[in-house]
Write a structure and sequence with these properties.
This protein is an all-alpha fold. It is built from eleven helices and four strands; from the N terminus they run βααβααααβαααααβ. The longest helix is centred in the first third of the chain and has 38 residues. The C terminus is likely disordered.
Length: 383
């Protein structure tokens, strides 16, 4: 590659302007559609739309990673110091001519920059959420009345804004540290945390308090399922960012064995560059096998726990819809996970696998936040 500064803040202002312009459309649509509603309802509609776009952003981020477009523009925040690949055509063409299948091509540069534009647009919507929340809080404080049902503390939106800025920093490090596996994994996990934060605010922003009761025992199992899911997401991110998906290309065995050769110390050495150990030596294939197989073994536990949760929730009419969504997502994750292994990691299956994980986080978070807890003596138990 040609020498290129990793950070060039020259296009930052224009990139922020692009994000603000992208956010204007959703903002105008939300406020026009809810122009006759109360301010709290408009704020709720904005949160819901931001949640939807954040889910889309996660999918597009997965598409960026899976098409090897993460270094399509090797500097940050722009592309060779320009706001878009249009201003960097000569530099991109030179890199593509030198390495036609390398990390920098015209298509990969556009994919990377579209991801940055969408991320900036979501950030602008969260800025609008924050400003709206503080404005409503100030109006309510001046009126001296009690908070209306569905009124959220402005610190929710403020923390969400802080988190999305932190995500932007990890996005920059993803590029400047050349797809450092730990950074990329944390960037993926942070995006799902952002999704969960927005889901919590949408549920809590509902003016009608939750009326569906979740037995205390089942709630504990739901918390356990969500915790196991987060561990599995981190393991899955570690598989993807280390390109260990195809370390096992058969199922249910791996490399024709129930317990293949695995190097756990190398595979789970967290602070190292892609493809090498912390000392700079090439990573053993057995390390990639360990990464893949631990994720697979954990998947068995998580899928069983979530399937049991879906079955238990389905026993109550009030929780039938969440239970069916959970069961469908468990099936999707099983099918796409197997497809990634036996069909040589097809792009569609890999995208659906990431989307399914995000949807599971959304479903479990929504179910947990949107329920009222019963007294301990009424608690149900999983078998």
């Amino acid at each position: 590659m040609n020498a290129q500064p990793l950070y060039d803040l020259t296009p930052l202002a224009s990139l922020l302007l692009v994000g603000a312009l992208l956010a204007l459309g959703p903002l105008a649509w939300v406020y026009w559609r809810n122009r006759h509603h109360a301010p709290l309802q408009r704020a709720q509609a904005l949160r819901l739309f931001t949640l939807f776009l954040t889910f889309d952003l996660i999918l597009f981020g997965a598409f960026t990673r899976l098409t090897d477009s993460g270094l399509g523009c090797p500097d940050w925040p722009g592309c060779y110091g320009s706001t878009s690949p249009l201003g960097a055509q000569h530099a991109i063409a030179a890199e593509q001519a030198a390495m036609p299948t390398g990390p920098v091509t015209q298509a990969k540069a556009w994919i990377e920059m579209l991801h940055r534009y969408l991320a900036t647009g979501v950030g602008a919507l969260i800025v609008a959420m924050t400003l709206t929340s503080w404005l409503q809080w100030r109006i309510s404080a001046r009126a001296g009345g009690k908070p209306s049902p569905g009124a959220l503390s402005p610190w929710w939106a403020t923390f969400t804004l802080f988190w999305v800025c932190l995500q932007g920093a990890f996005g920059a490090l993803t590029v400047t540290m050349k797809l450092f596996p730990a950074i990329v994994t944390l960037h993926l996990a942070g995006a799902l945390v952002l999704l969960a934060l927005l889901a919590l605010q949408v549920v809590r922003g509902n003016p009608t308090p939750p009326s569906r009761v979740l037995p205390a025992g089942l709630r504990r199992w739901l918390v356990l399922g969500l915790a196991l899911l987060w561990v599995q997401i981190l393991l899955g991110g570690w598989v993807s960012t280390n390109y260990a998906v195809l370390a096992c290309s058969d199922f249910p065995q791996c490399q024709g064995r129930w317990w293949p050769e695995m190097n756990f110390s190398q595979g789970f050495e967290l602070w190292r560059h892609l493809g090498v150990t912390g000392t700079g030596e090439p990573l053993d294939f057995s390390a990639l096998t360990a990464i893949h197989y631990v994720h697979r073994l954990m998947a068995y536990l998580v899928l069983v726990v979530l399937a049991l949760l879906a079955w238990q929730l389905n026993r109550s009419d009030a929780w039938r819809n969440p239970s069916r969504a959970l069961a469908a997502l468990v099936g999707l994750q099983l099918a796409t996970g197997l497809s990634n292994v036996v069909l040589d990691w097809p792009l569609l299956a890999a995208l659906l696998h990431t989307g399914g994980a995000a949807a599971l986080v959304l479903t479990l978070t929504w179910t947990l936040a949107g329920s009222a807890s019963s007294a301990p003596q009424q608690a149900g138990r999983l078998p």
